[in-house]
Design a protein that fits this description.
With 271 residues, the chain is mostly beta strands. The chain has two domains: 56 residues; 202 residues, Fumarylacetoacetase-like, C-terminal domain (Fumarylacetoacetate hydrolase, domain 2, Alpha-Beta Complex), CATH 3.90.850.10. The chain has four helices and 20 strands. The strands form three sheets. Strands 1, 2, 3, 4, 5, 6, 7, 8, 11, 12, 14 and 17 form a twelve-stranded mixed beta sheet that branches. Strands 9-20-19-15-16 form a five-stranded mixed beta sheet, with no helix packed on it. Strands 13-10-18 form a three-stranded antiparallel beta sheet.
Length: 271
């Protein structure tokens, strides 16, 4: 059985723990080798049940020093938009301050009239990766999760830099679990986006222009990837707007459904 790992909060002042969910209970997964469980489901080292932990305690399954994103990475999407197939990955960064976990609200900023969802597969880096080849990339990826590369499309159209359009607080929902890389072959899975239960995006994870291993090779020859960093692999066709009151579901079979409500950014949010 493949394992989907949750990263959960266990109490005030406690550090996050990895856990699996079994019969409604969260059971700690021990990580003797470092920050990440380096095993497949059959050899996971399980600890005690985590008392009082529920689905509400699930955090984003990563704690990134940086979030690297790839633009225009689906053949059908590039063709649909009339964009040329890029010869190299087109990358940009989202700030770690944009990260939120499952269930947390996406805040629509006053500066934008048109905020879009972008359903994406994300890689969670498990080991420091510097100049690694595509052939060895799998050794550096701990697992895969769902991500929403939330984008202020009107700002993105106006500005040729992506930092503002993609960088607002709450613009990077991630989760709900991490599927172990040893057990998850992206090409065998699908990513979908539903808004209020209606289909918006649906694509097989075999339509990438640059597959995950090539992205790791490309990025790690530019910047060292640290454990906990996230690499988002691009969105398929069907991106569209979200409004306050919407519920956005990003799902990948084998990982689960990342659900986030959408709210207008509170006027006096100083937290
Ligand atoms: Zn994107």
């Amino acid at each position: 059985m493949a394992a989907s790992l949750y990263r959960v909060r266990t109490g005030e002042g406690e550090s996050a723990r990895w856990a699996i969910r079994r019969e409604g209970q969260f059971i700690e997964v021990e990580t003797p080798l470092g920050d990440f469980p380096e095993a497949d489901a059959s050899s996971l080292s399980l600890g005690a049940p985590l008392e009082g932990v529920t689905e509400k305690d699930a955090l984003a399954p990563a704690d990134p020093t940086k979030i690297v994103c790839v633009g225009r990475n689906y053949r059908a999407h590039a063709e649909e938009l009339g964009n040329a197939i890029p010869e190299e990955p087109l990358i940009f960064l989202k700030p770690p301050s944009a990260l939120i976990g499952p269930g947390q609200a996406i805040h629509l900023p006053d500066q934008s009239e048109e905020v879009h969802h972008e359903a994406e597969l994300a890689m969670v880096v498990g080991r420091r990766a510097k100049s690694v080849s595509a052939q060895r990339a799998h050794e550096f990826v701990a697992g895969y999760t769902c991500a929403n590369d939330v984008t202020a499309r009107d700002i993105q159209r106006r500005e040729d830099k992506f930092s503002r359009a993609k960088g607002f607080d709450t613009f990077c929902p991630v989760g709900p679990t991490m599927a172990l890389a040893s057990e998850f072959e992206p090409a065998e899975h699908h990513v979908t986006c539903r808004v209020n239960g209606r289909d918006r995006q649906h694509a097989g994870l075999d339509d990438f222009i640059f597959p995950p291993a090539e992205i790791i090779e490309f990025v790690s020859h530019i910047m060292t990837l640290e454990p906990g960093d996230l690499v988002l692999t691009g969105t398929p066709s069907g991106v569209g707007p979200v409004e306050a009151g919407d519920t956005v579901d990003i799902a990948v079979d084998g990982i689960g459904t990342l659900r986030n409500p959408v709210v207008r950014h509170p006027a006096d949010d100083v937290s």
